[in-house]
């Protein structure tokens, strides 16, 4: 999506019928900085890009009460439903924001602010002319590397084999990240809400017998990587 398209998206507003309480924020033309959304006292902050109906956000706020989880969803209807579920849970360590996820990471999140970024079953945009709209394009590595702290993670799940290949190529070729298969299994063993699960797509695709590919990409320490890439702060 072009910058103009992203900014136009931010200007749209829609009506919704759910009751999300104070757990939903519509970004609008000028979304707040991440620091304005996170209550005091949270050492760990994580973002989920495209939380859909909010299954993971709700589970994560229960599994990790010391972590604040912000879900950034482009579709107001889904965001409102997810926020309503979060509101009904009574938990205050999560919120839903209607905005463009990549753009929010680029201009509203401070350097090294995040312990993790979760991206589960992103739209593969299968038509060739639409593939530039995918989240995992070549420019995303620099965006993620800036906002994820040293030894933090980008956690990904997809059922789409072709898109999985693109994720592995884009992230695997980034000098700022390395795949951590041990962490992938550790998070799975920890259970729902820690990574990958649960999501509505996951449940659906498991029932359909699809193969789900899960990745954990660790942000390498800046003193090792950024002297070569020029990104981030000097050690």
Unreliable spans are: 1-9, 11-16, 230-235
With strands numbered from the N-terminus, the spatial order across the biggest sheet is 1-4-3-2-5-6-8-7
Major beta-sheet overview: 8 strands, mixed
Elements, N to C (H/E): HEHEHEHEHEHEHEHHEH
Q: Helical amount among residues, as a percent range?
A: 25-40%
Question: What would you call the quaternary organization?
Answer: single chain
Q: Tell me the number of helical segments per DSSP (H or I, 4 or more residues long).
A: 10
Considering the protein shown, what is the CATH homologous superfamily? Vaccinia Virus protein VP39
CATH class: Alpha Beta
Structural class: alpha/beta
Assigned CATH architecture: 3-Layer(aba) Sandwich
Rg (C-alpha, Å): 17 Å
Nearest-integer average pLDDT: 89
The CATH topology name reads: Rossmann fold
Q: Report the portion of residues in β strands.
A: 15-25%
Global geometry:
globular
Count of extended strands: 8
Count of spatially separate domains: 1
Can you put this structure into words, describing what you see?
With 235 residues, the protein is an alpha/beta fold. The protein has a single domain, classed as Rossmann fold (3-Layer(aba) Sandwich). The chain contains ten helices and eight strands. An eight-stranded mixed sheet has the order 1-4-3-2-5-6-8-7, sandwiched between helices. Helix 4 links the parallel strand 3 and strand 4.
């Amino acid at each position: 999506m072009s910058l103009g398209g992203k900014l136009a998206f931010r200007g749209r507003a829609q009506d919704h019928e759910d009751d999300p309480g104070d757990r939903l924020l519509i970004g609008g033309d000028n979304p707040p900085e991440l620091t304005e959304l996170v209550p005091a006292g949270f050492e760990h902050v994580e973002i989920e890009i495209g939380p859909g109906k909010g299954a993971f956000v709700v589970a994560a706020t229960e599994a990790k009460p010391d972590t604040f989880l912000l879900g950034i969803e482009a579709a107001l209807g889904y965001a409102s439903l997810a926020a309503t579920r979060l509101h009904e849970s009574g938990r205050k360590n999560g919120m839903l924001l209607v905005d463009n996820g990549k753009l929010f990471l680029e201009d509203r999140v401070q350097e090294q602010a995040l312990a993790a970024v979760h991206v589960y079953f992103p739209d593969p945009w299968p038509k060739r002319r639409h593939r530039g709209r995918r989240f995992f394009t070549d420019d995303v590595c620099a965006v993620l590397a800036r906002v994820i702290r040293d030894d933090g993670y980008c956690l990904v799940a997809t059922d789409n084999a072709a898109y999985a290949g693109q994720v592995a190529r884009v992230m695997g070729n980034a000098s700022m990240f390395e795949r951590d298969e041990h962490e992938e299994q550790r998070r799975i063993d920890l259970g729902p809400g820690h990574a990958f699960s649960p999501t509505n797509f996951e449940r659906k695709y498991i029932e359909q017998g699809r193969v789900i590919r899960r990745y954990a990409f660790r942000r390498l320490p800046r003193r090792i990587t950024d002297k070569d890439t020029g990104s981030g702060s000097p050690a």
